[in-house]
Write a structure and sequence with these properties.
The chain has about 280 residues and is of the alpha/beta class. It has a single domain, classed as 3-Layer(aba) Sandwich (Rossmann fold). It contains nine helices and eleven strands. A hairpin with a 5-residue loop joins β8 and β9. α7 crosses α9. It binds S-adenosylmethionine (SAM). S-adenosylmethionine binds next to α3. Its EC number is 2.1.1.-. It is an enzyme of class 2 (transferase). Keywords: Methyltransferase, Transferase. Belongs to the methyltransferase superfamily. METL family. Pfam families: Methyltransf_12.
Length: about 280
């Protein structure tokens, strides 16, 4: 997502470009995607074993991400150039906390464009924290980067309650066991100032990567484990409404962003689907 300006007005035009922004979604598309997911559910060997998620996802999760960042360079995730259009709140904030900062692909573009912001950023993978701290633009005067497991009950290191203007979470909460999401959201809520915002973007249900998973990767409905041992949960707007209400957030916006990718040569279409939400801690 960079400009979001290519709209598909006529179905007959679909093969004229490689991608289309903000595409429509129909009951027919939903039912064919549901059929794929039902087939996964029918044969997944893990659904019968509720401990599988704990064994596969939780204990070794940070080691799996740690290995990931040891094996990939800082540029594996591209700098988020769309940040200023989608999350302008970041660029007027005095204090930001990024959860699951990875290799710093949000931290550094934000620091460049908002030269006065204080950035706290955490990740539970030590190699990710190291990559950010060792990057040439790292500035310890305005960047506090630390290791932290969002799914643990521990509070964020050296961050006072009610002190942060904006918390940003980009493709991170999907990596948690969904049962742990309330723990993570409570902690975020606590450090936000009254009126502060949580900006969230993550994988949405029916994303093409969900439909491509083999059934043996499914460990709970909408939760999968990749070949490298990292987990991914696919969100819906409805789930975000429930999570926001449980934690005490006001929902400011909650949208599903769908982009159509086209393989013009093979005449194939695929949908990338993301959920993007803005949650506010009430003033009172
Ligand atoms: C897909 S990456 C996204 C990184 C970054 N937000 C970005 O947009 O480039 C997911 C990140 O979440 C981190 N992560 C996953 N589970 C976590 C947890 N329980 N606590 C803290 N970080 C976690 C991983 O180490 C990884 O850096």
């Amino acid at each position: 997502m960079t400009t979001r300006n290519r709209k598909l007005e006529e179905d007959s035009e679909v093969w004229t470009h490689n991608s289309w922004d903000d595409v429509a979604w129909s009951p027919e598309l939903a039912s064919s995607a549901d059929a794929v997911i039902s087939a996964q559910l029918a044969v997944s060997p893990h659904l019968a074993n509720p401990d599988a998620v704990l064994e596969v996802v939780q204990t070794p999760a940070s080691q799996n991400w740690h290995k990931f960042y040891e094996n990939h360079s800082r540029w594996f995730f591209k700098d988020r150039k769309w940040l200023s259009s989608e999350f302008p709140e970041l660029f007027v904030a005095d204090t930001v906390l990024e959860v699951g900062c990875g290799a710093g692909n949000t931290v550094f573009p934000l620091a460049r464009e908002n030269p006065t912001v204080m950035i706290h950023a955490c990740d539970f993978a030590p190699s990710a924290v190291k990559l950010v701290r060792e990057f040439r633009e790292f500035d310890e005067q305005r960047m506090h980067v630390f290791q932290h497991d969002l799914s643990s009950p521990d509070q964020f290191e050296d961050i006072s309650d009610n002190s942060i203007d904006v918390v940003v979470s980009i493709f991170v909460l999907s990596a948690l066991d969904p049962a742990k999401l309330p723990i993570a959201l409570e902690k975020i809520w606590r450090v936000l100032k009254p009126g502060g915002m949580l900006l969230f973007r993550d994988y949405g249900k029916y994303d093409m990567t969900q439909l491509r998973f083999k059934a043996n990767r499914l460990i709970r409905p909408d939760l999968y484990v990749r070949g490298d041992g990292t987990a991914v949960h696919y969100f819906t707007e409805e789930e975000m409404v429930v999570l926001a209400a449980q934690t005490g957030f006001e929902m400011v916006s909650n949208v599903t962003d769908r982009r159509l990718l086209v393989n013009r040569h093979r005449k194939l279409t695929m949908y990338r689907i993301w959920v993007q939400s803005k949650l506010r801690k009430p003033i009172n």
